[in-house]
TrEMBL record:
PROSITE patterns in alphabetical order: HTH_TETR_1 (PS01081), HTH_TETR_2 (PS50977)
Record-linked InterPro entries: DNA-bd_HTH_TetR-type_CS (IPR023772), Homeodomain-like_sf (IPR009057), HTH-type_TetR-like_transc_reg (IPR050109), HTH_TetR (IPR001647), KstR2_TetR_C (IPR041490), Tet_transcr_reg_TetR-rel_C_sf (IPR036271)
Keyword Transcription regulation (UniProt): yes
HTH tetR-type domain: residues covered: 1-61
GO terms assigned for molecular function: DNA-binding transcription factor activity; transcription cis-regulatory region binding
Protein name per UniProt: TetR/AcrR family transcriptional regulator
Residue ranges of the annotated DNA-binding region, renumbered to this chain: 24-43
UniProt keywords, alphabetically: DNA-binding, Repressor, Transcription, Transcription regulation
Length: 188
């Protein structure tokens, strides 16, 4: 693992465990086993490191979502796969997901704007799939597509508050349940 990845992994673990504000740069470099110079070679500040955690997860999940959305699968299967995937990938890196959802208000305002725009792009693409299904009669159309997305993704954003790897459900099982709940709520 290179220095940059070591720093990010250490920051994710410490931010999830202690919180962004309570974690010092010194603790990050000690945890990563690198020098301050190594950290500052890649990140100008602790805030930049937090921003990287946000954008890395969001970029990865967006790439995966677009691949599924543009596939030839029937619309309900695409939506099911997308919801399952975002849950599974969030649980697979639950510390990063926890940091992502709990520390957002601590980001510098200009970076919050950028993250919101990227997250909105993700949500709008998924919302467009719901709206397409509503227009074509595949999904019920009496609930606005925006409300469907906000409701379900709001629940997904809370995974870090209650999910535990040693619990009775795997990430894949939770993903399947979330996707099934969304699709059942959209049945005509």
């Amino acid at each position: 693992m290179n220095v940059r990845d070591k720093v990010v992994r250490a920051a994710v673990r410490l931010f999830a465990e202690k919180g962004f504000e309570a974690t010092t740069v010194r603790e990050i470099v000690e945890e990563a086993g690198v020098t301050k110079g190594g950290l500052y070679h890649y990140f100008e500040s602790k805030d930049d490191l937090l921003f990287e955690i946000y954008t890395a997860m969001l970029r990865m999940q967006t790439r995966r979502m677009v691949t599924i959305a543009e596939s030839d699968l029937p619309l309900p299967e695409r939506l099911h796969a997308i919801v399952t995937d975002v849950v599974v990938t969030s649980i697979a890196d639950l510390d990063a997901a926890t940091v992502f959802f709990q520390s957002f208000p601590l980001l510098e305002k200009s970076k919050q704007v950028q993250v919101r725009a990227e997250r909105r792009t993700y949500h709008e693409r998924v919302r467009d799939l719901v709206a397409e299904g509503q227009r074509t009669g595949v999904f019920r159309d009496d609930v606005p597509a925006d409300l469907v997305i906000n409701y379900h993704y709001g629940a997904i954003h809370r995974l870090g508050m209650w999910y535990h790897a040693d619990g009775s459900l795997s990430g894949e099982q939770v993903g399947e349940h979330f996707a099934n709940l969304m699709l059942r709520s959209l049945r005509p």
